Amino acid sequence: MPEFSNTPENFHDQPILLEKLDATGALAGDDGGYRDVPVTDAGEDLVRIDGDVMTRPSYDGFDEVTGKFDNRLVLPAGTEGVYARRSVLEALKAANAYLSSRYANGMQIGVVDAFRSKGRQVAGFSRKAIEVLDGNQNPDISMLYKAGITADGTFSSVRPFRNNPVYTEFVKDMVSSQAVIHLAEELGKSPADVAIDLADICANLRKASDVFPNAPVTPLNMDVPLNANNNAHAGGGAVDAFLYDGSGRMLNSHVPFDHVGPEAAMDFLEQDDSFDAFKTRVKSNPMLREHLEKQGITGDVTPAQWKIWQQTQRIMYHTLTRVGATFFSDTARNIGSPDFFGGENWHFEPGNVVYDPATGKTVYEGQSANVVRDGGNPGHTLQKKGPGVAAPWGGDAAHEQLVQKGVLGR
To answer: Do 105 and 134 reside in the same domain of the chain?
Structure first.
């Protein structure tokens, strides 16, 4: 087991405890309602981050554990280099400066994903939905809906412009569909809510038909324009990241990137019964076993390995939240609840003000801090400022900015 330095902060010894936020009254990590946050983009610059921080861009084909290239991981519509808002880069630099001063072996935050174009976001959502459908190209409405909801939990769909006449007519037709009515009864939702969710799912999957030959047939037969404003990655305000040592060895990942399961909750490693539950789950889940084998872990997970994961996850969590980032996760204490929405222990959303993790002093203020201080993408702004405050980073403006830079095509 690596020896962690004794520091005044002792992040590795501080459990991850998700508490209620003053701004929303919800638990930290719960950004429910982010799609309804207004967006007024303040024009903060998107910059390449791969020259300043370690990156293993998964959707460009690089395995997050080994760093090896795998063409099966590539998603279309990428960029040359990894981009994010300048404040995000400064947050990562502050986090890594802290880590290098406190912990041995070149400990660092490594980024596996940041800005995503609209095309890449749709492709990722669609690939996950297709994976859930397991080759079924003609699913019924119930199967299509459930696959889309599962995919949305991992790779958020891009919301269509809901005032589009094709969209509104489709929702109207679906509300009166017997299949939607029956599904709504099963789910305990209104037919209108199910119809809207289904319309969002179908609009995203329509965009994937030219990319994936096994894309499912949807009842929506016309393309609908998509609005990426409220998507965290599309706005350049989110990073998916892990903790690595100086040689590129992953330190804190007990589950693989984009793993859909309760084990990915931010505080899963803190629960009393999680060790035994995880060992049992590994035995029945080939994806988890393969992920651990990439790290040289075979057989039963040992208490010593569990301790390493627990301590390094704490280090990453406390370092990034202390620089000002928010995150997305339910608490693992809710795993047995029907309302449990999962989590992504790798997903963090820095804002436009960066703080020193040790002292709490401001070390950087982005240009957009003059508009909304401690703002960022919609989910971050909601958690920091509460509902009703406009987010200063939006996906459509970010996309257009990179088009103007010549990084993306239209």
So the answer is: no
DSSP labels, 360-384: --EEEE-GGGGTSTT--SHHHHHHH
Helix H or strand E encompassing 20:
none
> Closest by alpha carbon to 364, among 98, 88, 97?
88
Q: Among candidates 198, 202, 205, 217, which has minimal Cα distance to 138?
A: 217
pLDDT tens digits, 31-74: 999 999 999 999 999 999 999 999 999 999 999 999 999 998 89
Task: Decide if 389 contacts 381 (C-beta within 8 A).
Answer: yes
Q: Domain check: are 307 and 394 in the same one? A: yes
Query: pTM for this one?
Result: 0.92
Q: What is the structure's pLDDT at 3?
A: 62
Largest CA distance in the chain: 63
Asked if residue 86 lies in contact with residue 46, where contact means CB atoms within 8 angstroms, the answer is yes
Could you tell me if 108 and 189 lie in one domain?
A: no
Q: Detail the DSSP E strand segments found in 173-306.
A: 239-244
How many independent structural domains does the chain possess? 2
Looking at the fold, whether 161 and 305 belong to one and the same domain comes out as no
Strands 54-55 and 108-113: parallel
Q: Is the dihedral of CA 41, 397, 152, 243 positive or negative?
A: negative
Q: Quick one: pLDDT at residue 2?
A: 59
Strand extents, DSSP E, 231-315: 239-244
Overall residue count recorded for the chain in this entry: 410
Torsion-angle region of 248 (φ positive above 0: left; ψ -120 to 50: alpha; else: beta): left
Domain range for 181 is 119-206
Residue 3 belongs to some domain of the structure? no
Do 249 and 124 share a domain, yes or no?
no
**HSE, side-chain direction, 13 A CA sphere, residue 95:** 32
Six-digit token string for 214: 């096994």
Residues 135 and 150 in one domain: yes
The continuous run of DSSP H or E covering 145 comes out as helix 141-154
**CA distances to 29, 47, 232, 321, 405 from 52, in Å:** 27, 11, 21, 20, 20
